[in-house]
Every structure is written in C-alpha cells, then in structure tokens.
C-alpha cells in the first residue's frame, strides 16, 4: 500500500496576489477572468428553465450609427452588447473572444431582479417599505437595522460598508471571499453572506441617514434585501 501523502496548495487563481486582488481580477488577467468566472468562482448555483423566452431578430441599423454605441463597441474592453425591446433583438455585437454562446456574469443586473422580488412581496402585503430592515431581520447589524427598506432600495444608507473602487481595501473587495471570488485569509475559515452582512455596523457616533444629495452605491444593500426576501418568503 502506498502511504505517500498527497500535497495540495491554495487555488492559484483565487489567491490574493497584489493590490488586495485575486489573480483573476488583476488587470493582466481580468478579461480572461470575467470570461471564465463561472468556472473560477468557488460557489455556483445553476437553474435551467423548462420554458425559454422566444426572441425575434428585428435589427435596427440606426442603432449602430449612434456615436456612443460606436464608442462602446470599439473600446478595447468591449465584450458584448444587446439592445432589445419586448421580445425583439434590435442590435447585437460581440467581441472576437466573447461569442453569443459565451456565458457572462450578470453582475449588478441582479439588482433588477431583486427589485422585482421586493415588488412581489409588497404586492402580497408581506412587507412594508417604510418598515426597518431590523423589523424583518432581527439579527442584522447596526449598519442596516434602523434603515427603512425603501432607503436600502434607493441606495440611501450611510454605514461602515464602502464600495469605493479606488480603495483596494474597500468593504466590497473584502466581501469577495464570502462570495467565493477569492480565498479567505485563512483557509477553512469560510464565512457565509448572512454572517458577513450581520456584522456590518453603523459609523461610530452616526445614524444611517443620508443627508447628502448623492446616492451611495453598496452591493451589500442588495445582499441584505436578498436575505430579507429569503426570510420573509420562506424560500431560502
């Protein structure tokens, strides 16, 4: 019997290399990283519908002539662009390395679907938008407990969570290990989304009210609302 010990090493694609970023998310690897993110990410959930939306191509040649469209499709970072209305595809274009069959992460398009879920719960009178998050999620941290659902939907909450992409140590990057986009600092110490969100705190000595004229974009807002949808609907 062979008693040789098998050795392993941290997944090199998910190791944080520099600028507090995983290898796949560094500039020299990012395009390939996003192309294969569905294979890179540690966690995944796959659903395949029994019915698919019927789409018809009704190309409008004038769309391509729009200066902003030209600027986009000729940019070195361009991947793909589809313009649709109802069930008609009016324009589509793909980069050479992003075909129409290439899976692409929907990223923050998730927020659109989340708003629809919230709308359905409102319609069912399962939630009220002027109620606080803490009313529905008693374990949520001080960073969201006293915020109204409406303010969270509007990106109108001030707390310790930041999504400043000019700061490599901003909260949104630190959240990547929770979503499986990078390895945690210590292997085996995995934290789930609910645990992470429950630890977001209010800024010291401040409430959550946004007194500025600006919205504060935070992906954690969407994650908190998703957690709320799960708890209220009972469909975790």
TrEMBL record:
Give residue ranges for domain Beta-lactamase-related.
Answer: 81-235
Pfam families xref list: Beta-lactamase
Which PANTHER family does this UniProt record tie to the protein? Answer: BETA-LACTAMASE-RELATED, BETA-LACTAMASE-RELATED DOMAIN-CONTAINING PROTEIN
Protein name, entry field:
Beta-lactamase-related domain-containing protein
**Native source species:** marine metagenome
